[in-house]
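Re: your question from the hallway

Yes, I did run it. Sequences:
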Amino acid sequence: MEHVVPPEAAALLARARRVVVVTGAGISAESGVPTFRDALTGLWQRFDAQALATPQAFEDDPDLVWGWYEWRRSTVRRARPNAGHTAVAAIEARLPGTVLVTQNVDDLHERAGSRDPVHLHGSLLAPRCSGCSRPAPLPDVADEPAEGRRVPPPRCAGCAARVRPGVVWFGEALPQAALDRAVEAAASCDLLVTVGTSGLVYPAAEIPRVAARLGATVIQVNPDETPLDAVAEVNLRGPAARVLPALVAAAWGDTMPA
Ligand code: APR
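Structure:
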C-alpha cells in the first residue's frame, strides 16, 4: 500500500536547493539489520553496550568484542539495501549538492548508489590497528562467526597490536573531519530530512538542531515519536522504505524502482 505524503512535505522537497539527509539504524531495519534501541529487537535490548561497544570492553575481552562485530558484519553482508536507501540515492541524483550524513556503520547506502556518505560513527568495513591505526584487511567471509562466538582479532601487519573494528565506541570522539562536514552542511542547508534515528546519541543528534536553529526546515521520518519531533516542521510517521519513496514520488513525480 502506497504511503500518503502530505502535500506540504512534497512541496518542501520539490523546492529545496541544499538538502542534508541524516540517517540512523531505522533506515536499515527493513533490510534485516537490527536497530539499537527498538524494544525486543534492538541490539542494546539483547546485548550489553558497555560489555561490547567501549574501548574498555575491547581491552577486557577482545575476542568477545571482535566476534560480536564480525557477527554484525556478517548480518550486514547478507542484507540488501531497501527502497529507503534507494530513495536517498535518488534525492542525491536529483540534487547533486545533497549531503548524506549517517550514524550507520553498514554499507547499505553505498550499495544503494550513494557516492559519499559521511559516516559519523565509522564503518564495520574499515577495521584498523588499535595501536598504530594502520588500516587492516577485512577477514575472509568463510570465517564469519555465529552470534555470540568469541573470535581472536587479527594482528596488525605493521606493529602486531590487535586489530579493532573501525566503529566509534561509546566514550570515543567522532572522526573530526566527518563531524565538521556534517555540521557545515547542516548550517548551510535549506532542508534537512532525518530518517530512522532516535535522536538520543550526541553529537549526531545535534545535527538536525543546528539546521533548524539556522533557519532550515526539518522533516522527520520515523514510525515512532522521538525528541526530534519538536525540531521537525513535518513528522512523517511510517517506515523509511515506504515513506521515502512516496516522498520522492510526491515531490518529483518520479516513481521509484520497487
Ligand atoms: N523506518 C524508519 N525508522 C525506523 C524504522 C523504519 N523501518 N524502524 C525503526 N525505526 C526508528 C525507531 O523508532 C527509532 O527511533 O529508528 C530509530 C532507531 O533508533 P536507535 O536504535 O536508537 O538507532 P540510532 O538512532 O541510529 O542510534 C544512534 O547509537 O548505539 C549507538 O552508535 C550507535 O549509531 C548508533 C547510535
